[in-house]
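Data availability (excerpt). The following record was deposited with the supplementary files.
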Amino acid sequence: MLSTYFTVKNFVEHEIIIQKSRFIAHVLRVTSEEEAQAFIASVKKDHWNATHNCSCYMIGEHDLIQKANDDGEPSGTAGVPMLDVLKKQRLKDTAVVVTRYFGGIKLGAGGLIRAYSQATSEGIRAAGIVKRNLMTIYKVTVDYTLLGKVENETRASSYILRDSEYMEQVTLWIYVNAKEEADFEAWMTDLTHGKAHIKREGCDYIEEDV
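Predicted structure:
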């Protein structure tokens, strides 16, 4: 799993007008090619009367799944420039469909490349970008006598206290950056004088806005 990567935050539809043509960018986070294709099909169904529904997507940790479709525009003037925007912004697990309603003015190859690139860029900006950080989840169990100290010190640290459960003892779920496990375990052991039960519970991503 990647320690960090960038993707889009929200689904969005964002429209711009260029030379009287309407360009509507539809942006969605996807996790599989099937999901991307279903999204594209849905947009095409909703905009069945559009002149073009051009699309691209890039999926996977190492960007192994990449597709671009010009949907009737001159070859290389729509899907590929859209995909280039995803590459330049280092976005993963992202699908974009740009719907065009022709306004009567031809843009030429260069104009189309600029228009589809702009629509994609503005759509991504409207959707927002997040950085996903891989975290190791720790389950830390302590006596109530240590609760206040552990909670306060954790909140003052770079570690993230995500949840707690109060039974005979207190169980805390703490998120730690994937490369800081050894430091955290030593820190928690020292903080509690070895009285905490510390167990790794797997991994998950935490998102932060970019």
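Summary of structural features: The helical segments are 33-46, 79-88, 108-127, 144-155, 181-191.
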